[in-house]
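Exercise: predict the fold of this chain.
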Amino acid sequence: MEEYGTLFILCIFFIVWTPIYYFRHIRKRGIKFHKSFDSIVAACIFLFFIGSFTYLLQDITSVLKQRTMVYKGRCEVEEYNTAKNSGIAVLFEDKYINFNRFKGEVKDGQYDCRVEYYPKTEIGYSLELYESNNGSLVKEIKN
């Protein structure tokens, strides 16, 4: 949830900051472009951040209301490490669902899975792993 809060604040900041910076600093310094070019650049930057904000807002409502989707089936579980975080990736044939901050809790391998995830970003909410041969529960993880 914290990664959403940071992105949300950044989007609001840039939505407010872009027009203010453009009209205060660039116009006052006398940097002149062709008027239509000026308008196109400002509009593109502004629309980019409005679009990012709109997409983020849709996902935040899913997180706050805990609107998740369920996916069941055969999956492969792998640990991943990046510079910023580490976690578990659950790989289905057509889905790739991440669980951040759960490194080392599950052995890599093939399982039967039941996953709840947020639909826009495919970040996992809960994970149940079952052994393939007898169906016994191996691990249950909840964000």
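Check your answer against the key: Residues 16 and 29 are 20 Å apart (CA to CA).
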